[in-house]
Automatic annotation (TrEMBL):
<comment type="similarity">
    <text>In the N-terminal section; belongs to the LpxK family.</text>
</comment>
<comment type="similarity">
    <text>In the C-terminal section; belongs to the UPF0434 family.</text>
</comment>
<dbReference type="InterPro" id="IPR005651">
    <property type="entry name" value="Trm112-like"/>
</dbReference>
<dbReference type="GO" id="GO:0005829">
    <property type="term" value="C:cytosol"/>
</dbReference>
<dbReference type="Pfam" id="PF03966">
    <property type="entry name" value="Trm112p"/>
</dbReference>
<protein>
    <recommendedName>
        <fullName>UPF0434 protein FNU76_07560</fullName>
    </recommendedName>
</protein>
Length: 61
């Protein structure tokens, strides 16, 4: 994931910052506890494609 692209992308729900989880290939919004998938290097920033993070799942730094 390009660092410059990550700097300008925000959560479409709350407009907050996103964390790039390289291992899972997801962009995570800590505030809303949702993860947006990255498919073939392209972030899919659609609410319907996001997965909700369970309360017990750790969100990376």
């Amino acid at each position: 994931m390009d660092a410059k692209l990550l700097e300008i992308l925000v959560c479409p729900i709350c407009k907050g910052p996103l964390f790039h989880d390289k291992a899972r290939q997801e962009l995570i919004c800590r505030g809303d506890r949702v993860a947006y998938p990255i498919k073939d290097g392209i972030p899919v920033m659609l609410e319907g494609e996001a997965r909700e993070l369970p309360a017990d799942e750790e969100v990376g730094q």
